[in-house]
Amino acid sequence: MYVVRTLTVALALLSQLALAQSLRLKPTIQVADNTNRFTAQFVIDLFPVLVPTTYYKVETSTDLENWQNHYFRYNADSQQIAQSDYSIISVAEGVSIPEVLAIDISLAPEEKTFLRLTQLEEAPATQRFLTRETVNLLANLHRIGWDPDSFAFGQEFPLSYREGIGSGDGQIEKSDSKDVVGDHPGVHGSDFDYMLDRSWEEDFHIAAARRAYEDGAIVTFDWHWGGKYGGTYSAQVDDNKILDHVVRDDDSRGDVTWFYESIDRVLDRINNDLQFPIVFRPFHEMDGNWFWWGRQIDGGAETYQRAYQLLVEYMSARTEYVLFCWSPDVATTDFEQFYPGDAYVDVCGRDIYSVGNSGRPLSKLTEMIAFAEEHGKVAVFSETGYTAGGASFETGDPDWWTTRILDPIKADPEAGKIAWVLTWINATWSGPYIPHSSSPQAAKDDFQTFHDEPATLFQEDVAALNVYDSPPTE
After folding, report:
1. What is the pTM of this model?
2. Contacts of 109 by beta carbon, 8 Å cutoff, 6+ apart
């Protein structure tokens, strides 16, 4: 079970011990009770000790000799927090701080870790400016992920499409999930492709995502980005060359210009139409060969890594609302070579359809969870669902949600360390991936059992966590 210990500790100023007495309030440090991942799990409320618009290096250590670095800047006026390497920081209004501050945090009599803040004269090389809501969302995703006994349930376009609705009807208060179990999914998946090049339905996809946010759900976006030459997200010879040209800054075909202009369109949607925190999952399933950004691209994994970094750098300089998710597919064993680096990723996911079938064991998920844990990232089950050559789970495996998802995750404490599980779209042209009002009763009963299980968090459960309004406190 996830436990947060709120510890009030004395300041140990390495050069100015007297200042500790002048602060009057001691820092309150909230630390997850998980002794092996100190560097990513601090949620810090430092009260009046930080100078706004000043950069700090945050270092953590268990032996006072080997320190791991994180960076942030706090701007009290705009409520921004800039981060690099993504330590989770929540700070109150600042006054002053000595040049170096060390805090001794005790987790248990036999376990100690130390945190040290150092004021910097210059900004770190990699930085991101995030709204307080965005930082709180990341902290709360860590909280959900740390708890092996709960995870949020999500679906792609739950409010935009439903079984029998092929192009959306604008009734964003409805969902198949709510029809069956009385509540919407706790994670709302969306896709920027549907907000950029589908003029007949862009507005209600935006409205649906905003409605999910306003109701307290987590909102995540992928992007089935249509290539410059093929016009589709599928791999195509000319499109396979785009990222190599972008990385080498070769605009002889106009690829570099097209790349950034396309991202500008996404940024316009984020900053002007959405204006709330999202988890963005660009270039997903890159270890496969079916997308134009996949492993078959000119330059291979190295080109992919740098292209991902360029996208994050470009977007981070232009928006305060985005956390980034990196999610390979299940089909390969060498997904690590595509990882763009800790400074460019907040969430690690894996796409595994028909989990439990041959070649798709749950261990493929726990493999990614271990990778995320090693790198201090949130882990998610980024896509899943029943697929069997066009057959429906409703008749082929009506207990799929309990027997293939819920029970195996509950049986494996490591598998439970995910923030969410997300399945795909119910529509006339997709799925169904969850039961709907006309589904066989056996499938609806099974999904009701899945919903009623305390481990699964639907929208009402996620909203109760106030994931945008406050960092985790318990």
Report:
1. 0.80
2. none
